[in-house]
Amino acid sequence: xxxxxxxxxxxxxxxxxxxxxxxxxxxxxxxxxxxxxxxxxxxxxxxxxxxxxxxxxxxxxxxxxxxxxxxxxxxxxxxxxxxxxxxxxxxxxxxxxxxxxxxxxxxxxxxxxxxxxxxxxxxxxxxxxxxxxxxxxxxxxxxxxxxxxxxxxxxxxxxxxxxxxxxxxxxxxxxxxxxxxxxxxxxxxxxxxxxxxxxxxxxxxxxxxxxxxxxxxxxxxxxxxxxxxxxxxxxxxxxxxxxxxxxxxxxxxxxxxxxxxxxxxxxxxxxxxxxxxxxxxxxxxxxxxxxxxxxxxxxxxxxxxxxxxxxxxxxxxxxxxxxxxxxxxxxxxxxxxxxxxxxxxxxxxxxxxxxxxxxxxxxxxxxxxxxxxxxxxxxxxxxxxxxxxxxxxxxxxxxxxxxxxxxxxxxxxxxxxxxxxxxxxxxxxxxxxxxxxxxxxxxxxxx
Length: 447
Description:
By secondary structure, the chain is an all-alpha fold. It has helices at 2-61, 69-83, 91-99, 109-123, 130-142, 144-148, 152-171, 174-183, 195-211, 229-263, 269-285, 295-301, 310-323, 331-349, 353-369, 372-383, 388-401, 419-422, 434-446; strands at residues 186-187, 412-413. The radius of gyration is 23 Å and the shape is globular. It is found in: Membrane. This is Voltage-gated chloride channel family protein.
């Protein structure tokens, strides 16, 4: 019996031994490749952040430049109309290429989205920066595909490292960036074969960006209440509101974009019209703090009570900017919406306003992007590990209550959030196509 057991165990031992040896080339390959991607993405983010700071500072001193926003919008729209049609899908193009690899992302995406976002901020649009960093990271990473002669599976991982590197370096959150590159692709499912490359790319890109002398905003939460029956219930209630806010944002931005495309056929005229509407509204309402990134107001939301309608103001101006074609990201405006909404909810739920502002900061984004794990890690990286348990509750609740919507059209349904949908929604469906699929299903059931 003992001899038989040893004969059975020996092949298994040999297989395991060989498996570990085979991992060494894999680790070496992706350590080098991910580091190259990180160097490119981190440097691009550094240039972008420095340019963005300069544009914001100049606009705040010269407020009259807001009246040129329609012309700036037309210029950005014309540049994309003439040169950028292959890359106009932005983040969704990167996600689609990961799911269904077809052709290398054109390098022109980098200067177009960099210039378009800086111009949008310079003249007063309400847009973010994550989309720009992710697109630059993905496009720069994909240029290595031909050079390294990568197959489809490796190219998918390469693009994921670009997403992680861009996100990490623009926000200074390497762990969140690594997981974001894995989690954003499909609701309820992650690819662990890309975990090591994404972690390396995120960490190195953050360090590269810092090495260029770029500094990120630091937020102080202060008091964090202990985990208890009321604090958990209160954060769940707040998470429901945060999730609904994320869902409303994603839906409104997509609906406005579709409406504008139906009624304005010539693409450069869309941001021109949007810029005119934004400029008039800002001037008439004195809503200067709702344009640009809005970081000063985000910082204030951790320090003092804010106006209860601030989140609505940022919501409206960001939807108007993105829906009419200005370039940039959604995430920093979502941080603003979440932080100010959490600040407003705090007195109603008897929680410290700084703490709930911090949870709202990440939870609205978790709901809008369907990335609860990345946003929980982001909360811990930005605000300290102590907020982790309550931030996780807020982010997961927001994720569940945001429904099967999201700011990224190309995101797939990997695993439905709710049991009822799991029975009818096929895996791999783009969330942009989900509403049409469910409508057809209901019509078939009635017929």
